[in-house]
Amino acid sequence: MSTYHYLPLDLSEVKAEINAAVKEAFAELEKKQSAKPVDDEIYTLAQAAKKLNVCIKTLNNWRNAGLIKSGKVGSRVYIKHSDIELCIVALNSKKSRP
C-alpha cells in the first residue's frame, strides 16, 4: 500500500507552484513551435511550375526523379514553398558544376 505525506501549504504557495509549472510548460511549447516554419504556403502543380518557370510536364518529371517533394490530397498534387526553394538550390548547385 502507498503512503501519502501531506505537507502544510497555504493556498498562495499552491497557486505559485501551479503558476510556475504552467509557465514552464508554455515556454517549452513556444520553443517547439518557433522551430517549425510558421507560414509554409502550399502550391498546386500549375502554381509551382509557374514559380519555377517550367512546364507542368517538367515538374512531374522532377517529382518522379525525386528532385522535388510533393504531397497528395485525394487526386490533387501539392508542393510546399519550402520544397520549391530546396529544388531551386539543388538545381543551382547542379548548374555550377563543371
TrEMBL record:
SUPFAM superfamilies in the record: Putative DNA-binding domain
Pfam families: HTH_17
Listed InterPro entries: DNA-bd_dom_put_sf, HTH_17
Residue stretches making up the Helix-turn-helix domain: 43-85
Superkingdom assignment: Bacteria
Name by which UniProt lists this protein: Helix-turn-helix domain-containing protein
